[in-house]
Request: fold
Amino acid sequence: MPRLTPIHYGKFCKFLDYVGCSFKHQTGSHLIYTRTDLRRPIVVPKKKQLSMTVIQSNLRTLVISKEKYLEIIKIIK
Reply:
């Protein structure tokens, strides 16, 4: 089974757009995304490589499995 690996924040933002999230605003070096069915916003730090912890936390908020995430990442290359 493939593992999560750190990715550039820009690619993660493309993933968020793909799953229906919309950019709301930027606070300092953090991008804030929302979606109507989410209880809290998705926060993406503008870092060259997002850590696996940040990715996993946001996937939990989105209620998206690791496998589905990896499929989508392959599609949006």
